[in-house]
């Protein structure tokens, strides 16, 4: 790998953690994930700001993705400065000091059969 | 956050609101959403044009996304100048006076178990 | 709308029409769709080449998307020069003489409950 | 087709092969696929590096996509230098000596009704 792949600013406009789940945990817990890939040879220090419909943004949430590692970060697990509320629309902006790649995935297991969505996040050079 | 992330013109080529739904409302109402994120410090004034297969485009639909807010806009809820018909193919072009990020999501609950799709919309610099 | 949005070359690397379906037709017929949006004031003449795993590409399939219209083209319906086989991996390259936006969607109804996927296609300036 | 469409470096930040499956094989085997399209007139020699959460990357996995062909590569089938473990988060970087287009798809059939996700991968010019 010649050089790290990715960008340093990303956004996910869709965000929603279903309020309940069906099936064995943790695999079938309804969750929303930001998959972060750091293919570089230096740790990436990542900051996430979370935006809401009706109040000021919360954050930054901080996470480190070590060199040459991927971290599939469940928004469900974020707690500092505060947990992400369930059944609430949100969005996020993700900034890193190293180029990373970000993909957004949700598993919705509110019903007996789970549903999935995924998309590459929006990458910015700005 | 140094500067707002996003673009001012977006397009969603896929559009389809299923004709019926199964399960508790409003979470399981079949719907199609444009998730809009405005991370800037100024309100974003957004105009949406809706394109059809067999007639002239309708719009603009107008919506404001306040500064530092996200709005998950259900196409189901648009009413002015006219509602989006169900069970009909459409597409949309979204223009904003501030940079925004747009993601497209559908929940299809016509059957007992819901299905989901999502993708980042197409962003343009033009 | 100041100018048309989109690009003139697009690719969809994933292609697969499920072999069978469950549920009422045509809504729940398993299908794969290229959603084409032409927001310009001139008709877009579109040519689609279809690529396979083990034989030479087939095409071009020709379709016109009128000015200010969207066309949600089911690959299932393509017949000239030949139908797209079911249960077969393929991919496609889409070229237009006007800028268009392309989104790829599949509804898989092989089982009792349908599944959905969608993504913006890959756009090229080349 | 004037010239090949695509890029030579791609990344998929999401990666997860479900641990089990329901339904007839191989169509309903839970799987994760990188759909590769080589629209050029020369074979594309592709190398895939796989990244994990807690150990060094593995690879390169090597695959050739012949000229004017698509290959829908199941990560499940990769064996050299080692199989991809199930029920494990991973990510991948895909490099090719010819421009290609990469799309990421998962079929999750752990439950009775399958779920699907798909997204265009992240393309890089670097």
From TrEMBL, chains A, B, C, D:
Which Pfam families does the entry mention?
Answer: ASRT
Q: Mind telling me what this protein is named?
A: Sensory rhodopsin transducer
Q: Which organism is it from?
A: Stenomitos frigidus AS-A4
């Amino acid at each position: 790998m010649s050089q790290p792949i990715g960008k340093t600013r990303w956004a996910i406009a869709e965000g929603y953690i279903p309020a309940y789940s069906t099936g064995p945990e943790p695999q079938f817990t309804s969750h929303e994930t930001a998959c972060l890939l750091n293919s570089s040879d230096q740790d990436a220090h990542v900051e996430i700001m979370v935006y809401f419909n009706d109040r000021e943004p919360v954050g930054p949430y901080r996470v480190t993705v070590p060199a040459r590692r991927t971290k599939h970060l469940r928004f469900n697990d974020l707690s500092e400065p505060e947990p992400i509320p369930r059944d609430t629309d949100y969005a996020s902006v993700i900034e890193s000091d190293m180029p990373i790649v970000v993909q957004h995935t949700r598993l919705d297991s509110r019903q007996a059969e789970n549903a999935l969505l995924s998309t590459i996040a929006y990458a910015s050079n700005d």
